[in-house]
Write a structure and sequence with these properties.
The protein has three domains: 86 residues, Ubiquitin-like (UB roll) (Roll); 93 residues, Translation factors (Elongation Factor Tu (Ef-tu), domain 3, Beta Barrel), CATH 2.40.30; 129 residues, Rossmann fold. The chain has seven helices and 17 strands. The strands form three sheets. Strands 9-8-11-6-7-10 form a six-stranded antiparallel beta sheet, covered by helices on one side. The chain has a six-stranded parallel beta sheet with strand order 15-14-13-12-16-17, sandwiched between helices. Strands 2-1-5-3-4 form a five-stranded mixed beta sheet. The radius of gyration is 21 Å and the shape is globular. FE2/S2 (inorganic) cluster binds next to loops.
Length: 337
């Protein structure tokens, strides 16, 4: 039996079906609640139950401690309800966020290509177009795995029904090696989305600096293509970190964009270059950015997407260069490999 969920302080009301988690119900009806792992592990979706009773579901004892359970908190991504409930959530109002209900959509793999020796590009034609903001991610349902895996959309919204995923292989992971070895053209797959709040804060009207590493290039690629297509006049700089030229991908596309858009600058950075003919930057993106910006990042918006070590080093560099935390945006989803 469906019941009602009221979310404070916004006063949003959503219907919750039997067995449906509070988070799933809210997101499917276009109501945002904070989330990251979607599986009871990270605690990002913790909310206080003000009225009614919930079943806590499979909440990890680390993400929701015993004392928090006693105090009436639950994880919205695991909690279900069979009576009307009122919860209180910490919701940051983001004026750049659109309200887009998440959906399940089937699609057919129409192309696969190794973009680097470790990153597989998959192109999937969906049965219906997915509405999303450039930078967001989807859950990809992998046969034989209970939990879907999260991947950022590497295409921009204007590509219609065709989406692109860039999937880095984690050799000791489970799903990514399976995807690399087994997914083939013609396969039918379900995706769910869009999720996440990683997108360009257009209302800020500030020049942008993107940092990308590994398959973390997906979101920046989508966001930059979307901005340039939509006539963005702010300066955009992309630092793309890779070990060597083999690991650098979409370099020609970004160089081409640079030649066509005077407000876009592309700076590939190799950390382990062995090619003496390489004329680009060598080292780490954080150090190169400090050099190019003369250690002064005030007045910019920064968007980071890549391995945690890279992101941490870039955040430190940006803050030392006087960029406030509110102007530094990172992709925050967690997904098992
Ligand atoms: Fe719910 Fe991570 S614990 S989103």
């Amino acid at each position: 039996m469906a019941c009602k969920l009221e979310i404070e302080p916004t006063g949003d009301m959503v219907d919750v079906q039997e067995g449906q988690t509070l988070l799933d119900a809210a997101l499917r009806q276009g109501v945002y609640l904070p989330h990251a792992c979607n599986h009871g592990l990270c605690g990002t979706c913790k909310v206080e139950v003000l009225e009614g009773e919930v079943d806590l579901g499979d909440a990890s004892p680390f993400a929701l401690m015993e004392s928090e359970r006693d105090d009436g908190f639950c994880l919205a991504c695991t909690a279900t309800a069979d009576e009307d409930v009122v919860i209180e959530a910490e919701i940051d109002v983001d004026i750049d966020a659109r309200s887009i209900p998440i959906k399940d959509i089937m699609g057919t793999v129409i192309k696969r290509e190794m973009l680097t020796p470790r990153i597989l590009g998959l192109w999937i034609e969906l049965d219906e177009e997915i509405d999303f903001q450039a930078g967001q991610y989807i859950n990809y349902h992998v046969p034989g795995f209970d939990e879907p895996r999260a991947f950022s959309l590497a295409n921009q919204p204007s590509t219609g029904k065709v989406i692109e995923l860039n999937i880095g292989i984690i050799p000791d992971g489970e799903a990514t090696p399976w995807i690399h070895n087994n997914v083939k053209v013609g396969d039918r797959r379900k995706i769910t989305g869009p999720f996440g709040r990683f997108f360009v804060k257009r209302s800020a009207q500030k020049p942008m600096i993107f940092f990308a590493g590994g398959s973390g290039l997906s979101s920046p690629k989508s966001m930059i293509l979307d901005e340039l297509e939509n006539g963005c006049t702010q300066d955009i700089t992309l630092f793309h970190g890779a070990r060597n030229e083999e690991e650098l991908y979409y370099a020609d596309m970004f160089r081409d964009l640079e030649s066509k858009h005077k407000n876009f600058r592309y700076i590939p950075v190799l950390s382990d270059n062995k090619n003496e003919n390489w004329t680009g930057e060598i080292g780490f993106t954080n150090d190169v950015a400090k050099k190019i910006y003369d250690n002064q990042f005030t007045g910019h918006k920064a968007y980071l997407c890549g391995p945690p070590m890279m992101s941490d080093a870039c955040i430190t560099a940006l803050m030392q260069g006087r960029l406030f935390e509110k102007d530094i945006h990172t992709e925050k989803f967690f997904s098992r490999a």
